Amino acid sequence: MAEAHQAVAFQFTVTPDGIDLQLSREVLKHIYLSGVTSWKKRAIRFKNGVLTGVYPASPSSWLIVVIAIMSTMYARIDPSMGMIDRIKTSLPVSEFMTVQTQTVLSAILFATGLWLSFIFLLRYILKALLSYHGWIFESHGKMSFSTKVWLSLVKLLSGRRPLLYSFQASLPHLPVPSIDDTINRYLESVRPLLDDEQYKQMESVANDFKKDPAPKLQKHLKLKSWWATNYVSDWWEEYIYLRGRDPIMVNSNFYTMDLLYVIPTHRQASRAANVVHAMLQYRRKLERGELTPLRALGIVPMCSFQYERMFNTTRIPGIETDFVQHLKDRKHLVVYHRGRFFKVWLYYGGRHLLPSELELQFQRILDDKSEPQPGEIKLPSLTAGNRVPWARARLKYFNEGVNRASLEAIETAAFFLTLDDETHGYDPENIRSLDLYAKSLLHGKCYDRWFDKSFTLIVYKNGKIGVNTEHSWADSPIIGHMWEYVLATDCFHLGYTAEGHCKGDINKSLAPPTRLQWDIPKACQVIIEGSYMIAKGIADDVDFHGCLFNEFGKSLIKKCRTSPDAFIQLALQLAHYRDKGEFCLTYESSMTRMFREGRTETVRSCTCESTAFVRTMEDESTTTEQRLALFKKAADKHQNMYRLAMTGAGIDRHLFCLYIVSKVMDIDSPFLKQVLHTVPLQQVADDGYGVSYIIVGEDLITFHISSKFSSPETDSFRFGQNIRQAMLDIRALFNPKEKKM
User: Fold this and answer.
1) How many CA atoms lie within 13 A of 508 on its CB side?
2) Are 603 and 639 in contact (CB under 8 A)?
3) For the residues 252-258, what does the mean pLDDT come to?
4) How far apart (Å, rounded) are the C-alpha atoms in residues 277 and 356?
5) SS3 for 4?
6) 220: how many CB neighbours lie within 10 A of its CB?
7) Is the dihedral of CA 607, 608, 610, 615 positive or negative?
8) How far is the CA of 472 from the CAs of 83, 128, 248, 254, 465, in angstroms?
9) β-pairing, 340-345 with 347-348?
10) Cα–Cα distance for residue pair 673/670, rounded to 1 Å
11) Mean pLDDT of 295-317
12) H-assigned helices in 585-715
């Protein structure tokens, strides 16, 4: 009896007469096109790699230098001062290399060396220029002559049309602040929170630390700063993120919302298709390095290092520490819908699937009526619970067979997509709609997001979307850049038909998505349920409130000659004091991406100046002029601290690294223990508030407030009302007639 076997590109039948081979022309065509696309991709990456490698020069400048050197030789002028002759004497003599060939080759080698030296010189000069940060401390709208000259030089040396990674080699390293500066700033930051006796005790401990062991720790930290690209970032990623054994859901992962007032289509499969296609377009630009680097003032470059691991990345659990796995050229994604996992290929014939083709694939998943396999529906909750049980379960139950293949499909996917079976979004008529929307993005049902993926795209039944992002690989501005591109591409470039479908023809010849298979034993299902219960306890404890403040926004605050960030931070201080009747340590994140591989620094927003302003606001005997004067003083202080943090002169990252060095050297430091004990390492505080705010356009500020129901001291909705009133009260200082109660 004949036995038939089928492969991807051909069919063959084993018969007594031999093998009858039948090739599939259509499949072979797709294989050929895939190969062509792959080689094109390599060629583009190589070209862009060369352009980035020689930046701020260009390959054409090499030709100019070679022609210039050759021209001087024909004019019998030796610009090399004898070096070309020395190179010529070192070249081998053979019948294939004449004296003239040796001379030309020597000139080319000298010109190439001169060109490379010129590149290194330009980079050194640019790095020295970018190490100057005086411009950031100048008053808004006022620029000194020296800063104008500096900006002109930076612009001149920055070249034209830089690629995403063009400036990486020219960015300065993050400087290590002096011990004296950090200690003084730390003591200044805690002064408004301590009484005289407590402050005196803290001052004594700090001074003891300054004498010993601080100098010893500082020497080792400076040594690291000379050797490593960034003295903070690798330790921050390892010790703050990857070594944490608590759940990353809620505590670490963060979310990004859709446009509040716009839903371009209510068809779930259509919205998912357009958004996924836009993400693939962004990934292609990212992999080729074709995105424009972010530059302050349109001139000063920011580090682009964090973009590298946006796609094809997964956090892999370990017993003692996790690690980040980053791959290249992943051609599939995994979709979760109603407790089932599906693998969807993203390429067809060497190209990305079109939006209409992706819509077909996602609609097939939505229409699939199959039931989840045992243990499958809550499997993602392993990524939501404690890390050690997940790491042990992965080693024991997902290391072979179908479980290993299916888990590998998830962990090697470009990203993870959840086709959610709920409806969410902002509804002006439902005051809780934004709260429920945010909580769904933050934790969902605790088993319908793969929290270990670099990000999970969530598409709801009504077409609303959002993203849940794992925090270790990057900070929120990075995913925000991608999200802005995706939303703009989805709404303004790809678009939808009048019926809400994706534009383009439907290719029904596409193979349907593949269902991932699992064989999960009872013992593993018990572990899954345990992780789910832990995650559910965390999620149920999150008290979230979304506050849309539309009474005024950025434009009006700027008319008051105040930084919008400082205005909002002081409003938060006033709101917190009214909420709890006391001040507390407040941490605002600031970026340090003006340095190579820089991530974040902390700004301690509760200062002596801010507390003085708040107390004055609550003292009815003070005048508006007194309050306004103290407000401006506190705002100026906050802006200065923010600028110090951005320029590498912050407090917390330096102290954190000193603490790591002390632990490695087995040196006990009461001061560092006390400092690190007060630093929050999670997004939702046990007895305080986490507040994220976004300035949207000119007249809207959104506040995302989180706390815990288990804390009797907090109430997110109440705090939101306090923030609204604090914003209005501060605004009234600039025009008392506009005060609203």
Assistant:
1) 0
2) no
3) 96
4) 10
5) strand
6) 16
7) positive
8) 51, 30, 10, 11, 23
9) unpaired
10) 5
11) 95
12) 608-617, 624-646, 652-664, 670-677
CA-atom Rg of the chain in angstroms: 30
Lookup: tokens for 536: 């559910």
Q: What share of the chain is helix, strand, coil (3-state, %, to 5)?
A: 50, 15, 35
Two structure tokens written together for 384: 């939501």
pLDDT digits (tens, 9 = 90+) for 92-134: 776 667 777 888 888 889 889 999 999 999 999 999 999 999 9
Give the pair of three-digit tokens for residue 559: 């008319």
Phi/psi for 245 (5° steps) reads -100, -5
**Pair type for strands 455-459 and 416-419:** parallel
HEC assignment per residue over 195-215:
CHHHHHHHHHHHHHHHHCCHH
pLDDT band with cut points at 50, 70 and 90 for residue 13: low
Strand pairing report for 455-459 and 465-469: antiparallel
- Cβ atoms of 726 and 571 closer than 8 Å: yes
The answer to whether residue 481 is catalytic is no
Q: Which of 277, 424, 471, 545 is catalytic?
A: 471
Rounded Cα gap, residues 648 and 519, in angstroms: 51
Backbone dihedral angles phi then psi of residue 397, each to the nearest 5 degrees: -110, -10
How does pLDDT run across 307-338, given as a tens digit for each residue? 999 999 999 999 999 999 999 889 999 999 99
* Whole-angstrom distance, CA of residue 380 vs CA of residue 314: 13
Residue type, 671: F
What phi-psi label fits residue 684: left (phi over 0), alpha (psi between -120 and 50 degrees) or beta?
beta
pLDDT per position as a tens digit, 461-496: 999 999 999 999 999 999 999 999 999 999 999 999
Distance CA 722, CA 542 (A): 19
CB neighbour list of residue 591: distance below 8 Å, 6 or more residues apart: 302, 475, 477, 598, 599, 600, 601, 646
